[in-house]
Amino acid sequence: MVRHSEPIPCVMEETPNQRFAVALADGLRVEAVWYASGTLCISSQAGCALGCPFCASGRGGLRRNLTLAELEQQVEQARNLGLAPRRLTLSGIGEPLHNLATVRRFIETCRARQLPVSLTTTGTPLAKLREALRLPHNGLMLSLHAGSTATHRRLVPRGPDYDALWELLDRELPRLSRRNRRRIGINYLLLAGENDSAEELDRLARRLAPHPELTLHLLVCNPVPDSPFRSPPQESIDAIHTRLRAAGIQVRRANRWRRQQEGGCGTLVLRH
Hints:
Helices cover 32% and strands 19% of the residues. The protein is built from 10 helices and 11 strands.
């Protein structure tokens, strides 16, 4: 029996993410994810040319770039589902730099509507990365997933040259304002036995050391049927987080929305 003076415990259920496919006029499909935090993740291409072995989104290769109308279609479909995106991220299927002219127009259009847009890229081609760093985006995340050239070449086989990418960052980041530098981050998808060794992480820490404004985001992979890739167990991720913090790196673990089952693009279209 609960007395009236005692507080009644309230159990709050976490709002789930929603992942949905978007049918294009020519019969192709792309995918979007609405995160319960208010962020809508949309795709910039149908398929992807990069061929990263852990990624479900690019298994079928690149079909084509999306148009500005098709980027906006994904936002409109989310709203038709009763969702209210407060910010957008071009982090779904495709490499935004391979469709940069359209992505630039989309960022500018959304900015006029006071809807901030961020993007996630492998950084290829490097000439377009240099341009993208200066776009009026809300943030740019570089998906590196490696601390060494050999691991980067294996995990992002059609990405930019790893050393040349860091040379560009070493040269271009100091030219940005401190506020804009803080909008640049590094994505690191932890893959057991691939890029989670102490040596690999220490190499990455040395690359990051000259850039204290950069935040390193430790991500975990969403299981995909027939894929051999898995993230290490949570205790290993915690140890990696501690090691990097001790090295002076600004590092974050995946938030609770990214850890949900519907926390990543690619697998819905793959199932279809």
